[in-house]
Specification:
The chain has about 475 residues and is α/β, with parallel strands linked by helices. It folds into two domains: about 260 residues, Aldehyde Dehydrogenase, Chain A, domain 1, CATH 3.40.605; about 200 residues, 3-Layer(aba) Sandwich (Aldehyde Dehydrogenase, Chain A, domain 2). The chain is about 40% helix and about 20% strand. The protein is built from 16 helices and 19 strands. Strands 11-12-13-10-9-15-16 form a seven-stranded mixed beta sheet, sandwiched between helices. The chain has a six-stranded mixed beta sheet with strand order 6-5-4-7-8-18, sandwiched between helices. It has a two-stranded antiparallel sheet with strand order 1-2. Helix 3 runs antiparallel to helix 7 and helix 4 runs parallel beside helix 6.
């Protein structure tokens, strides 16, 4: 895939970029490793000052970078501004909390003495150069939720961003430079996917984090495993959205619309499989379908647009194949199920797809097992909570889950039995800097955000003092 900005709303090629050659990659690896040797000795206060400055700059750039993201990958411009604001919040949160999250841990005196020490502690030390392989769907947030904790921990970062968001990738490098971080702390590598393995195998790279598809995760994990390097993977998701009889059905349906079409439906943590108790199925289906039908599809740079284009023509083709397979095997189309009609203003060349609800899904359909990365929802009717939980877990993915119920016993059951990295009650899944984020099964491993995330790329060092010490 060429490194290029292509406007998905009209298919226009705006700009192409040359991939870095071997000499330039080498220079950036040298700079990153050299910088780490010095940067690791900086104080939390110094790092917090730079990160807060980056937050201030990003806040000031919010409108400009929002338009850049929208032009590169198609999200509605209002959602792009909200993404930038979320990044600002995360930067400030880590600037304020990193020192506390990475404070030395002290076992009790009794445990230290039992270990033969006069005293002991655990200190979190940075690992070094971390390679981040990031996706296009949240081109700012996915990077910042890695970079903010990594930089505050004393690591340095190399970013290999998706090839369709080069302007955003270059903006991020410039942002951290303008904020005052030492040169080499955060650099963007404009390289193709074929060049990732060599960078990851380089001895100067200590670890890697990837958010993306399962095949990409497998590839990075295989190389990192061969090199015995730490990785954190956040891969695909096909999150269940359970609705039980005690729920507020109208609110559940309204939230379901947002949960499904956020980012034009291209979100790993978007609710995708709507599993509804038979007692409230008809009412939920009516409200949900009406809400999906009412969405405005169009130019993502228009403030009134709810759903913009998919990020690429191939993405739309893949989504259409899933829908066509389901329909061919007996699924009912409650709304959508096709490309929109005449959108005007050159948008007919864009990669749009109507918000879609499919019912009558069976295990014979590809969409039952695969992730639908676009504004397509699948609707299931179940007899009870047992069937709902079984169906929710009948997926290779386990990123997050949503449950609508007012019954405490049902809540306890879902926390115990749902195979996912998160369980969100009476609301939609969202990430927040204070809460760990990640999945199980083929949705990946490790955690981002909160204290769990900042410690992923730290060396938890045991410090043991014998009977004689200063």
């Amino acid at each position: 895939m060429p490194i290029a900005t292509v406007n998905p709303a009209n298919g226009e090629l705006i700009e192409t970029y040359d991939a870095l050659d071997g000499e330039e990659i080498e220079r950036r690896l040298v700079a990153a490793r050299t910088t780490f040797g010095q940067y690791r000795a900086t104080t939390f206060a110094e790092r917090a000052g730079w990160l807060n400055r980056a937050a201030d700059l990003l806040d000031g750039d919010r409108d400009e970078i929002a338009r850049t993201m929208t032009t590169e990958m198609g999200k509605p411009v209002g959602a792009a501004r909200a993404e930038a604001a979320k990044c600002v919040k995360a930067m400030r949160w880590y600037a304020a909390n990193a020192e506390r999250l990475l404070a030395d841990e002290h076992p009790t005196d009794a445990d230290a003495h039992d270990a033969g020490a006069s005293r002991a502690l655990v200190r979190y030390r940075p690992l070094g150069v971390v390679l981040a392989v990031m996706p296009w769907n949240f081109p700012l947030w996915q990077v910042v939720r890695f970079a903010a904790p990594a930089l505050m921990a004393g690591n340095v970062g190399l970013l290999k961003h998706a090839s369709n968001v080069p302007r955003t990738a270059l903006y991020l490098e410039d942002l951290f430079r303008r904020a005052g971080f030492p040169a080499g702390c955060f650099r963007t590598l404009l390289i193709g996917s074929g060049a990732v393995e060599a960078v990851l195998r380089d001895s100067r790279v200590a670890a890697a984090t990837l958010t993306g598809s399962e095949p990409a995760g497998r590839a990075v994990a295989a190389v990192a495993g061969d090199e015995v390097k730490k990785t954190v993977l956040e891969l695909g998701g096909s999150d269940p959205y359970l609705v039980m009889p005690s729920a507020d059905i109208e609110q559940a349906a309204a939230t379901a619309v947002t949960a499904r079409v956020q980012n034009n439906g291209q979100s790993c943590i978007a609710a995708k499989r709507f599993i509804v108790h038979t007692d409230v199925y008809d009412a939920f289906a009516e409200h949900f379908t009406a809400g999906m039908t009412a969405l405005t599809v169009g130019d993502p740079l228009e403030e009134t647009t709810d759903v913009g284009p998919l990020s690429s023509e191939q993405g739309r083709t893949d989504l259409e194949a899933l829908v066509d397979d389901a329909v061919d095997r007996g699924a009912s189309v409650l709304c959508g199920g096709s490309r929109p009609g005449n959108l005007g203003a050159g948008l007919d060349r864009g990669f749009f797809y109507l918000p879609t609800v499919l019912a009558g899904i069976t295990a014979s359909m590809r969409i039952h097992h695969e992730e639908a990365f676009g504004p397509v929802a699948t609707l299931y009717r179940v007899a009870d909570l047992d069937e709902a939980v079984h169906l929710a877990n009948d997926t290779p993915f386990g990123l997050s889950s949503n449950v609508w119920t007012r019954d405490p016993a049902e809540m306890d059951r879902c926390v115990r039995d749902l195979e996912a990295g998160g369980v969100f009650f009476n609301g939609m899944t969202a990430s927040h800097p204070a809460l760990p984020f990640g999945g199980v099964k083929r949705s990946g491993y490790g955690r981002e955000l909160a204290g769990h995330g900042i410690r992923e790329f730290c060396n938890a060092t045991t410090v043991w003092y014998g009977p004689v010490h200063p």
